[in-house]
Structure formats: C-alpha cells, structure tokens
Amino acid sequence: MLNWIFQKSTLAVTSGLLAACLSCARSSQLTIAFIPQTTADDLWEPAHLASLNATAKTGYGIYWNGPTSNNDIQTQVDLLDQAVDKRIAGMILAPDHPLALMMPVRRAVLSGIPLVVIGSPLPLVPSGKLFYVLNDEEEEGRIAARRIGAQLDGNGSVVILGLDPNNGGVFLRMQSFEVTLSREFPGITILSRHMGSNSEAQAEQAAHALLTGTRRPDAILALTRTATTGALHVIEDSGQGKRIILVGCDQNYGLLYNLSLGKIDSIIAQDTYAMGYRATQILLSERSGSDAPSTIYIKPILVTRENMYSPALLNVLTHDARVRH
Asked: 137-269 — its CATH code?
C-alpha cells in the first residue's frame, strides 16, 4: 500500500499557535523563521522536517509559518517584515512571487539578518546575508527531455503546458527541455507551447483544447503541478490515457497517487528535503562565523512507478513528525 507516501504530517499547526510559539520563544536570536509558499502544500513539508533535523542538536528552533493558500503574496511579505522586527536569527523563504518579495527580502538582509531563498531565485544577486539553495531547473528540463525521448523511442510529437511569465525557473525548464530534445532526439517535434496559471480549471481548458485538436500529441510535458493535474483530468475524460505520455514537474500526494496507478508516466520531483537541510546549514554556519556558499543547486529526481517506493526517495516524497536526534 501507499501508507508511507500518503501519510499526513502532524508537523503543521495553526498559524495562531505558531505565532504564540514565536512570541514565547526563549530568544528570537535562537529562532529561524521558515516561510514556505504555503503551509497547505505537500511540496515544502519535507523541507520543514529537514530544517528540524538540521537544528535538532544546535539549540536553535524553527518557526514555520506561511500562507494557507497559493498566491497569498501579502502574507509572505507580512511574515518577512514581522521576522525582521523581531530580530530573528535567520530566515528561509520559498518565494511565491519573485518581484513582489524583492523589497522585504532586501530589507531583511540590509538589517543584518541572514536569509536563504530556496526553490526558485529572486532577481537579486547573492551577496552578504543573501543566499540561495535552488532547484536545478536546467537539469529538470534535461531529465524531462530524456524521459520523453526514451518513451517515444526518439520519434513523435510533444506539447508543453504550464508556462509562467512570472516564474523564471519554469522558463529555464522549458528552455533546457527544448535544447536537449533538439540535440538528442531530433525526431521528436514540439507541436505547441501553452501558458499556465494557478487555476486547475484553466489548465484543464488549455489541455482540452490541444487534445481535441486535429493533431493530438504523443506526449505532454507539464511544467507545473497545476498543469500536470489539468492535463491528467483531460486525458482521463477523453479516453486518451493509454496513448499519451504525461510527464509532470513537481510533486504532491495527488499526483504521486495517480503515478502509482499508471495514469502519469513520471514526475520530476524537487528534492525539497535537501533544500531545507542545506539552507538551515547555511544559516547555522553564518551564525557561527563560518563561510557558507552563496548559491547551491539541488538536482531534481525522476520518479516513476518502478522507483517511487525506493528507501532513497522516502525523504523526497513524504514526511512525518519524526525528528532525528
């Protein structure tokens, strides 16, 4: 069964309780604020667990709080400002929108608080107190191209879903995918590219339009979880599930479940556990006066039905309330 993949974490508690924990902390100088894109997102819970494991024997605590829904940029801004006002020891941020978060991040680092951005970068160069632990987007594109190329035996057609003009990482994925596909699989044609959104309904509409057209693709690359979900629903409804290879990017429990059923060919997962652990290590090093790398790239992982139960992927695909002491 899939118990270990779909176990829900008891780590997350209500924002009110977290706020109380922060106000009652014995010292903000021993607290690291971790602000994910949203606390309702499976993607970042492994990073939360990793940060707890990284600080287990250090005396530092993790204050985990963030928006309860996607695109709540103002809550991320408010939490950043509050952490600066409390003179927190350090911050880890998974930004929801790169441009809107530039000013509060700049304020934090100018106030002397070390901050690590994880996942996707901001349009700010790393310097002084600003560090990055990023998903290797170019490698993600290469993995996607090679998976689709192998599954199509080097011949066929593919469409790309989920382009986001506000997300430079997604653009890098697509660019790397196209370059690798052209170089290594010249017999595969890219039929079209489609903009994405954070709405599953809109993602379904885009997928429906391309699957009901005169030229149906042999494969779909969905650059985001939303695009993957939308494409999956349309493939199921149109009865094309066995004929179209769907490769998705970024994981959540729902997509992993459908992967286990064979409805999705593969998912390219971000190793957010590694991101959270390395980000916390950077802050601890900076606080101790040791040198820390300004930018680290974490390689994503191709997850298939064949390897999804591997012990090596346990931290990447799931999380639980156990902290290693």
From this structure: 3.40.50.2300
Domain residue limits, the chain: 14-135+271-299, 137-269
Model confidence over 44-66: pLDDT tens digits?
999 999 999 999 999 999 999 99
* Alpha carbons 154 and 157: distance in angstroms, whole number: 10
Query: Could you give the strand order of the β-sheet that contains 219-222, starting from the edge strand earlier in sequence?
Result: 188-195, 156-163, 219-222, 245-249, 266-269, 301-303
- In degrees rounded to 5, what are phi and psi of residue 108? -65, -50
Residue 78's pLDDT is 94
Q: What is the CATH class of 14-135+271-299?
A: alpha beta
The two domains 14-135+271-299 and 137-269 share their CATH topology (first three levels equal): yes
| Segment 208-229 mean pLDDT | 82
| Coil/strand/helix, residue 185 | coil
d(Cα 279, Cα 104) in Å, to the nearest integer? Answer: 19
